[in-house]
Amino acid sequence: MPTALAARNVSHHFGDVVALDDVSLEVPAGRATALVGESGSGKTTLLRCFNRLVEPTRGQMMVGDKDVRTQSPVLLRRGIGYVQQHGGLLPHWRVLRNVALVPNLQNMPDSAEAARQALDLVGLPPAQFGSRFPHELSGGQRQRVALARSIAARPGVILLDEPFGALDAISRAELQESFDQLRRDLTVTTLLVTHDLAEAGRLAEEVVVMRKGRIEQRGRMHDLVRAPATEYVARLIERARAGLEALR
Amino acid sequence: MGRLSIAAIVIAAAMPLELAAQGTKPVVVASKPFGESYLLAEMFSQLLESRGITVERRPGLGATEIAFGALRTNAIDVYPEYTGTGLIAILHDTLPDSVAADSRAVFAHVVTRFEELYHVRWLPPLGFQNTYAIAVTKETATRYHLRTLSDLARESPHLTAGFTADFIGRSDGLVGLSRVYGLKPRGVRPLAPAVKYQALVSGAVDVIDGYSTDGLLARYDLVTLVDDKHFFPPYEAAALVSSRLDRQAPGAIAALTLLSGRLDERTMRELNRRVEVDREDVRRVTSDELSELGLVGARPETQPAPSAQQSGFWRYLWDRRSTLAQLTARHLLLVALALLAAVIVAVPLGLGLERTRKIAEPTIGALGVLQTIPSIALLAFMIPLLGVGVVPALVALWLYALYPIARGTFTGVRDADPDAVAAAEALGTTPAQRLLWVRLPLAAPVIMAGIRTAAVITVGAATLAAFIGAGGLGEPIVAGLALADTRMILSGALPAAALALAVDGVLAIVERLVAPAHRRKRFWRRRSENSERASLETQAGAVY
Fold first, then answer.
1. Entry pTM
2. For residue A99, which residues of chain B lie inside 8 Å, CB to CB?
3. B56 or B519, which is more confident
């Protein structure tokens, strides 16, 4: 059963620096939302508030119908998938054991089986890849394993922080495609942080542009392109378009 | 294995070291690390033994501070000391010249003051003085017209001095000599007692500090300069006795007093020559002399041992193999106990510091400062607190071992794959799980490298433990230094070096074994991986 996400009037600062300034956001159950912005826009901070890696100074974070503060961070995180830019696989664990991490933490009866299914879902046959060490894989394969690890326990929510940012263009495109398919099949609620507008448009139903800790504009990609609400959004779209023009 | 059982093993292993000294408490006879002190201590020991008193020998204790510190705290019971040393190096008293020149008056003074201040007793003097003898070669004396210390001071800007560290530091040594005579040598080289005569004769230095009873003064035909300003106080040799022995063992005191007034300077110089020049065994020289003095029954004449001089070095080692094996075992035990205790403390400390990073660097820095304290000084600090023997040595070695282990643990755990640690946190592992599953396995080689460094340092530092009577391979080194016996020094130093290499080698293998799975040596991996992969594939085949 997918879970909805919500942030209500959330503010956060690191010392004097304002990272989030009264942000409110909902991600409907089973849908994908992308947070777009440059570094320092607060997008990653907002993402990390959902699994309590950051405790916001003010405001309320909801996962499902529960305030995140009603659950211990450890238990909360076990129920939420998470992928970071550099996959963060445990280098001394073989692939299968890495993927089985969360099922094991949740004491699932057959965690190895859950891990094998997850590997299959990301396109890595477990018989071939399960017993390898992470350093024996390509960068794209490693990110696939990280993805498999985040969904192995079938969470209702998955948080992704620049998950494909460190990959070459072809691997990135392949992985984006696999991921899009995967999250639809599993109907998992997805929140994706990216600085790449094209990726946001390809993977998310709703795009949220952030700048200096505030939401600049939110809506479908189509609407953003047609009617940018601010100068900044217009410039962002213009630049993404210029990137594509250069290929002609 | 739980902490408790480890502690139990440590205690059980340490027992035989210290409990040997319990029961009917033996008289602990010590000496300072030079030949004459060894000889006199051996005389005390044999005299006591001939009266049926059990003796424990602790020869070669550091220097004056260590030996006297041990006596004051009743860690040892008796050692030979000199009144001048007591007056200046221990009491720091200055007496009017008229009194200072009179050996009887000086003796009376130290007896009273030691009783007042330390409740330590001087037995009546043995009968000879052993003052500092500032010596030069005959050629140097002729060339610079040197007869007195005033002459020496005049010419000192042209001369290089080779003095023992003890002499350089003492107020009745170089410090006072410079003050009273205006001595300003071109350079001062600190020399070990064992090499100073060699250094003088070979011309490496021009002037040395000897003792007036040294056998080598006569052998090399050296000139002793006259103390024309009467700077040196009388150095009358006597037994210095702990308050415990004085109170509890009148028999021992009576036995020791038998030697009072029986040794003159000529006899002592002769005995020193037999030990230092002729390389005769200290025990043998001692028993000969005691029976000559009629203090012990004549020893049945045993076969004269083959002179060490004539047989080769390896033969020398072979003859001493059982002693060396014991010393090596003792050395290893000291190292193992100190290291184990250091691991038990420093690994959790390093882990704790990783979680409180603000105080991490200052704390580790403080441990690093400990590292810079010279071992001898650290050992000397231990004596008032812990006496002499195994316990203070273990504590000192333990302190030295803490730094590399704590540093290795802290940096190893701090720098362990930050991405993996962050991901493990985001996926809901507890801090303890991250420590056990991620940080420790990844940091293991770095921690092990710290332990390995500590182990090698400890093997080396443990040789110095002999200075406070803890035994081990330092024992022949200290004795050899005192008796100017190179072979004896090597018989401790070579096994110690071999031990350091062996320990390093063994721990290098351990370091490889604890490497995280993905970094283990190829041949290790191939085999285990292949079998594991095979079994995984079978499982997978069963499912699909």
1. 0.72
2. none
3. B56
CATH code for the domain defined by B132-224: 3.40.190.120
Using alpha carbons, select from B416, B435, B445 the residue that is nearest to residue B513.
Answer: B445
- Return residues 404-443 of B near A (CB < 8 Å): 417, 419-430, 433, 437-438, 441-442
- Over chain B, what is the mean pLDDT? 84
Residues B369 and B373: their CA atoms lie apart, in Å, by 7
B20-52 tens-digit pLDDT: 444 468 999 999 888 899 999 999 999 999 999
**Interchain contact, A130 vs B540, CB within 8 Å:** yes
In a domain, A59, yes or no: yes
Q: Flag residues of chain A having pLDDT under 70.
A: 1-2
H helix intervals, chain A:
43-50, 73-78, 95-99, 101-105, 111-121, 126-129, 139-151, 169-186, 197-203, 221-226, 231-245
- Given the DSSP bridges, would you call strands A32-36 and A206-211 parallel, antiparallel or unpaired? parallel
Buried b (16+ CB within 10 A) or exposed e, A80-89: bbbbbbbbbb
pLDDT for A21-57, tens place per residue? 999 999 999 999 999 998 889 999 999 999 999 999 9
Nearest to A92 among B421, B430, B516 (CB): B516
**Six-digit token string for A64:** 């499902």
Confidence of residue B533 (pLDDT cuts 50, 70, 90): very low
Quote the domain boundaries for residue A219. 26-79+157-248
Model confidence band, residue B17 (pLDDT cutoffs 50, 70, 90):
very low
d(CA A181, CA B305): 93
- Please report, as a single letter, which amino acid is at residue B361: E
Q: How many domains is chain A partitioned into structurally?
A: 2
* ipTM confidence: 0.92
Residue A84 domain-assigned?
no
User: Would you say the CATH fold of B321-513 matches that of B24-129+235-305?
Assistant: no
Does the pLDDT of residue B159 top 60, yes or no? Answer: yes
Distance from CA of A75 to the nearest CA of B (A): 6
Tell me if A145 is assigned to some domain: yes
| Chain B residues touching residue A133 (CB < 8 angstroms) | 517-518
Return the CATH fold of B24-129+235-305: D-Maltodextrin-Binding Protein; domain 2 (3.40.190)
Q: What is the pLDDT of residues B92-101, one digit of tens each?
A: 888 887 777 7
Interchain contact B527–A (C-beta under 8 A): no
pLDDT of B403 > 60? The answer is: yes
Instruction: Give how far Cα A1 sits from Cα of A42, A79, A119, A187, Å.
Output: 29, 12, 21, 8
Q: Is residue A74 part of a domain?
A: yes
Q: Are residues A163 and A246 in the same domain?
A: yes
Domain ranges of chain B: 24-129+235-305, 132-224, 321-513
CA distance A42 to A23: 10
Is residue B197 very low, low, confident or very high in pLDDT (cuts 50, 70, 90)?
Answer: confident
Q: State the pLDDT at residue A19.
A: 92
Give residue for tokens 């007036």.
B212
Higher pLDDT, B442 or B15: B442
Residue A38 shares a structural domain with residue A145: no
What are the CA-CA distances from residue A121 to residues B190, B383, B524 (Å)? 76, 70, 32
| CATH 3.30.70.260 holds for B321-513 | no
Interface check for A222 against chain B (CB to CB < 8 A): the answer is no
